[in-house]
Structure formats: C-alpha cells, structure tokens
Amino acid sequence: MSSHKTIARIIDSPQPHWVGDGFLVRPLFADLAFQREISPFLMLDYAAPAMFRPSDTPPGVGPHPHKGFETVTIVYDGEVEHRDSTGAIGCIGPGDVQWMTAGSGLVHEEFHSRAAAKRGGIVSMSQLWVNLPKRDKSATPHYQDIRKAQIPEVPVGGGVVRVIAGEFAGQRGPASTFTPVQVWDVRLKAGDRTTLTLNEGDTALLPVLAGKVKINGEREVAASRLVVFSHAGATIEVEALEDAVLLMLGGEPIDEPVVAYGPFVMNSQDEIRQAMADYRAGKMGAL
Fold it and tell me: pLDDT tens per residue, the chain (287 residues)?
C-alpha cells in the first residue's frame, strides 16, 4: 500500500488584482511563489468567473516578454487569443489549454478574443508557470495548442479528472514536458471521492479553485486556498463536500537556484541582467 502524502501546510491566497484590464486574478501560491519548496512550479494565477460587458476593444494584457520557463493557460469560460514574436497566433476556448515554452525568450500578448469581447460574457481561466532546468532555458520558444477533445477524461463519481500532463488511472495527458510533471484539471460533484496517486518524492500542490473538499479524511479546505503536501508518500484522498474545481499539480523538483525578476526566471542575477539586456536589444523579437 502506498502511504499518504501528508499535508505540510494550507495557504490562503491574497486578494485578487488585475493583470492588464482582462484578468482579475488571485495569486494562489502567495508567498511560496518562486520558492524552491514548490519546484518545479513557480506561480499560479486564477481568474474566477467574471462578467465582462460587450466591447469593441478586447480586454487583456499587451506585449510583454518571458524567458526561462513555461506558461500553462487553462480556459474555463470565454476565449483567450494570443500572438507572439515568433509569428504564432492562436485562440483557446473552454476546456482548451495553451502550453507555452518561453525558453530562450519571446514577446507575446494575451487578450479576450475579438468575437468573445463583442458578445461580452463570463471569462475564467488559470495560468500556471512551470520552471525549466538550466539546460533547457535556451530552448526554442514554441506552443503546444491542446484542445479539449485531446485531453483524456477519467470519470470520478459524477465528476471527472482531465489529464493535461502526466498520467492518471492509465490515461496519459497530451502535453510534452521537459521534466516529469502532472497537471490534472479535477472537477468533483458533492459526495465524490477519489484517490490521486503521484510519485514518491515529488512536489505535490492542490489549489482549490472553487467549492470545498476534505483531504485525507482530516482537513476541510475551501476555495482560494493552496494545499502543500509532503514530498514523502504517494496518495492523496479527496472528498468533495461541495461541487469543487481543483488543480492537482505534481512534479519532480529541479534542484537548482531560482532567480526571478518580473517575466524572467533564471539561475543567477547575471543571467537575469543578460535577459534584460537581450530584451532591450530586441533579441526576443517584437510584435
């Protein structure tokens, strides 16, 4: 029998703040963001469902650079359009995922799609940042455009576990990753119970996006909180006390320094200075 991953701590998220004019997000990792304790993960912003009025000018975030890591954007409601300095353009809607490898650096922008902005309506999404090991921080920037239909779904009672990356219950997610990572979009109905099995020794984080759950039969955890687990053990028991939306994140820690400055995540201050110089010199391209 696998032993439980025990709860190391439960963290409340800070109040939401705007990213651009399109995303009202809670930084769910709070003060743990960019700390080695949660490696290979860096930060997580969750935009709870928010209503936007119809507009001819799509809300969003204008051009900005990234280097040294990956972003994983999961759309729950609405549509998000992006374009970047490699020439890539795309649009993802409910259930879709965009896995962007910033690698050696690029400039991109993210807005509500023009069609969705004209209609108005609810927008909700999450964006996870995943670190890259030193050897891959110079990887060529690229996107994985992962559609809802490509993501395996494992039924759990009245709910479902969508396997974006890694493997759950024999189903493997479509995302290609540089280090071993599990990213599961978990939707449970009140009364559903499931056992989530991760790797012994891996980082395990469970952000509760909506609803309320009981973990390992002992702790109740409500929305906008992050459960951080021990590295030891493999299994996590989850019972939904209310309809709940969760992200299960597991990953092999990257045993390297993390030095972050704004949109750059490197291994040293010198590398950060070089990234800033490269960006200013136009080496990450432009829109």
Answer: 579 999 999 999 999 999 999 999 999 999 999 999 999 999 999 999 999 999 999 999 999 999 999 999 999 999 999 999 999 999 999 999 999 999 999 999 999 999 999 999 999 999 999 999 999 999 999 999 999 999 999 999 999 999 999 999 999 999 999 999 999 999 999 999 999 999 999 999 999 999 999 999 999 999 999 999 999 999 999 999 999 999 999 999 999 999 999 999 999 999 999 999 999 999 999 98
b/e per residue 118-153 (b: at least 16 CB within 10 A): eeebebbbbbbbbbbeeebbeeebbbbebeeeebbe
C-alpha span between 180 and 202 (Å, rounded):
9
Helix, strand, coil percentages, rounded to 5, for the chain: 10, 50, 35
pTM above 0.70, yes or no: yes
**Structure tokens, 279:** 């960006």
Give which of 175, 130, 181 is closest to 150, Cα–Cα: 175
Three-state DSSP state, 191:
coil
Q: Spell 72-82 as b/e; 16+ CB within 10 A means b.
A: bbbbbbbbbbb
The amino acid occupying position 244 is: A
Instruction: Identify which of 251, 265, 118 has the alpha carbon closest to the alpha carbon of residue 177.
Output: 251
